[in-house]
Structure formats: C-alpha cells, structure tokens
Design goal:
eight-stranded parallel beta barrel, binds ligand LLP, alpha/beta, about 30% helix
Length: about 425
C-alpha cells in the first residue's frame, strides 16, 4: 500500500497529520509529550542519500547518536544502512538492531579500555582513532587479543565548519582528532605495527553545516592525505568524511543532498577509494515532530504571554543548549488573531525555552502543538531532570502506527536505585 501523503501535512478536518494519520488520534492514545516519526520520510531521506552517492563505491554509516531508537535502526538496516557508533553503548544497540560488526565504525573522542577491547574483539569495520595514545592502546589490546584491528585516524584539518561553536569539531582548538600535519608520521608508525591495519582516513568537522566550503575543504585534505599514504604503500581502502549535512530548520537555505554529493564526488572519485559517510541529522531530522500540550498560559503586565508546554528541555534540549530554532505549529489552529508567545517548558530553569517570540494562532490551555524537525538529537538527548519521564515515541508507517518506546514511569526512573526504608 502506498500512502497519499508521506510526512506531515494538514487539512481543515484533521489538523496536522503524519502520513495522513491525525496527530490528535495518536495523542488521544499515547498522551503528550510524544515523538511522532514518519517512517516514509526516514526512508525517503535515506534513499535520496543513497542515490546521490551511487556513482562511487560507498557505504553510508548512519550516525546512531542522532537517534538510536531500535525501531528506527531496524528500519534503516532494512534499507541497507551501516552504522556509526560513538560509544560502547551505541555498539551494543547497533548489534541488537541487527547490524553486523563489519557494518560498524567506532568513533569517539574518549574511548575507554573496555570499549576498545570490545570493538577489537568484535572486529568492527574501522576504529576511528583520535590520538597517538589511542593508537598505542588499540595496538596493545589487539596484540593481546591475537588479532589485527582495522583503524582509521581521525584528522583535524583546522577547518571552521561555520556552524554553532558547540557543534564545530574541526578547528585546531576543538578537542577532536589528530592535527592533519602529524598524521603522515602517525600512519607510518601504524604501518609498522603488525596488530594494526590502517584502512582509512577519517574526518568530521561539525554538524548542521549549511555551506559546502568546509565540507569540500575537509574532503580535499583527507583525499590528499589518503593518496599520499597509498603512494607510500599503505593499503588504505576508504576515506570517511563523517556527517554534518544540515537540514532547513527555518527559511535559511541549506545545501541539498544533491549539491553535497556534487561537491564531494569529484574529489573522491579519482582516488578510486571507497567513500564512507556518517550522516545523522540529514536522515532523521525532518522525520519527526515532538507533540506537546499547552498546560498554562500567563502574561505579565506589558510582557509577552508565556505558553507553558508539557515538553521542555528534558525532551528537546537543542533550543536550551544551542539556542536552536524549531518551528512550532498548533496541531489544530484556532481562528482569531495570531499572537506572539514565549513558548517555554515546565522545568525550573529559565533556559527551558522551546521558542522565543513565536507568532502563533491564539492558544488555550489543553491545545496541542507540534515542534517540528525534532527527529535528530531530540529523543537521543533527552533526560529525566525534575524526575520527568522520557517521552513516548511513535512510528507511523504505511500500515498504521505503533508505539516504539513507551513513556517511562516513576518505577522506571527508580529502577536503578536502592529503594529501602
Ligand atoms: N560523525 C561524527 C564523528 C560525529 O561526531 C557526528 C555528530 C556525526 C557523524 C553525525 O553528524 P550529523 O550528520 O548528524 O550532523 N547535538 C547536536 C549535534 C551534535 C553532533 C555531534 N556529532 C545538535 O543537536 O545539533
């Protein structure tokens, strides 16, 4: 069965819908706050990336950090995705979702001994190493395990990705990677160690990148390094250009997937190397809304009214942490004059803002709103401050919808604690 309307659309009868299913009908069953994902939108985003990079040998390793809810991982695995894990936990979740070790790359700025030993024992596709010290540790653990670890060095090319400073990772003063000019010597050292196989070169300069120049610059630097290593006789198989492609959260134009591919392909193709990418946000970002309910309205004399939601920074941290913008819409807009609201969450923090100075239809307590483009770094970054439960998550597919994570309970929150008189 194919559905008439993939994604989030609205009509006068049903208000906002996901793949044609009214959000109101889902929320009537699961409550708020709830993440509501469109499976067709995830598949569409994935297939668009796959098509764009089809001209070169490639593997797309979905970045689990963006969202690793099992049902979404299984959906992506069914599409042929590989995985980028950033912790031992993400490796285990990837395995649980059915990814094989050979489909996993392991990235991360501070990998612990047990995480490295596990990745080595599994034989992951590549460990993206962050430092000479980490290379020494991988070497030692691989020797102990009597195996050969596949490694790539994550290089820091000193490129400003032009994104929010908290999510820029390729500048010299950021903590990530090995300064690129030190990489050739490090690779020569790796090549002398029998327990290490230097198979790739890795870079990731930031996230929510909306301009091609830094992506192109990073690709050129990494491909040049990989070619030099090949010329030195190293058996480099791939360049891994990380993730980072932005999505349009507002009206600011962003680079499209096709433009991204058109920029990278001519750089990578002549090298004959295979291309790995680690997209996260571009896959799931636009595929979900966070549905919330207005729980209070108040206005101070002369001030803009506050619309207090039952979802806040514990559910979607991005606005509080990065000043990030997410569109907010009434699920069923009321007639009447639009007004400007401070849309805030219920937590005892003034940083708990969802959207400042937002023009919305008149709101009343009990109304439902949808916070858009919440699929990436939404649920994945949620937490339980103020003993708040984790939101429910719902996946809407062509054959209906289902809960893929139930809302947590107070018992769930207390499950790890010693509960004694
Ligand atoms: N690969 C590596 C090594 C990464 O560090 C990241 C993201 C990705 C891939 C995926 O990047 P993407 O394609 O999603 O941009 N919490 C922030 C974003 C942090 C990104 C961290 N690294 C946010 O909500 O904007």
């Amino acid at each position: 069965m194919t559905i008439a309307t993939a994604g989030f659309t609205r009509d006068d009868t049903h208000g906002l819908t996901c793949n044609g299913v009214p959000l109101e009908s889902i929320i009537a069953r699961v409550g708020t706050p709830a993440y509501i994902y469109s499976a067709p939108l995830v598949r569409e985003a994935w297939r668009r990336l796959e098509r764009a990079f089809a001209p070169v040998p490639h593997a797309l390793h979905y970045a689990l950090k963006a969202n690793s809810t099992l049902a979404l991982l299984r959906l992506l695995r069914a599409e042929g995705a590989c995985a980028d894990a950033n912790s031992g936990g993400e490796i285990e979740v990837a395995l649980r979702a059915g990814f094989g070790p050979g489909q996993i790359v392991f990235t991360g700025v501070g990998k612990s001994e047990s995480e490295l030993r596990r990745a080595i024992a599994l034989g992951v596709h590549a460990i993206n190493a962050e430092s000479p010290g980490e290379i020494d540790r991988i070497d030692a653990y691989a020797r102990e395990a009597g195996t050969r670890a596949r490694v790539a060095v994550r290089v820091n090319p000193d490129i400003d990705a032009g994104t929010h400073t908290h999510i820029s990772t390729g500048r010299r003063h950021d903590k990530f990677g090995v300064p690129i000019e030190l990489a050739p010597a490090l690779y020569r050292d790796i090549a002398r160690r029998p327990a290490l196989a230097p198979v790739g070169v890795h870079v990731h300069v930031g996230s929510q990148i909306t301009d091609l120049a830094p992506l192109r610059g990073a690709a050129e630097a990494v491909v040049a390094l990989a070619k030099a290593l090949l010329a030195d006789g190293l058996a480099i198989e791939h360049v891994d250009l990380g993730g980072g492609l932005g999505i349009p959260y507002d009206d600011t134009p962003v680079v499209t997937v096709e433009q991204y591919a058109a920029a990278l392909l001519p750089i990578v193709r002549p090298s004959g190397l295979s291309l790995l990418l680690e997209p996260g946000r571009a896959v799931v970002g636009a595929a979900a809304v966070l549905a919330a309910r207005v729980v209070d309205l108040k206005a101070f004399p002369g001030g803009r009214p506050f619309a207090v939601l039952d979802a806040g920074m514990t559910d979607l941290l991005r606005p509080a942490l990065y000043g990030a913008y997410h569109r907010i819409e009434a699920v069923r807009p009321r007639p009447g004059r639009r007004q400007r609201y401070e849309v805030v969450g219920p937590l005892c923090e003034s940083s708990d803002v969802v959207g400042r100075d937002r023009e919305l239809p008149p709101l009343e307590v009990g109304d439902l709103v949808a916070i858009l483009d919440a699929g990436a770094y939404g649920s994945a970054m949620s937490f339980t401050y103020n003993r708040r439960p984790l939101a429910a998550e719902v996946l809407v597919d062509e054959d209906g919808w289902r809960v893929i994570r139930r809302r947590s309970t107070v018992d769930d929150l207390l499950a790890l604690e010693a509960d004694e008189e």
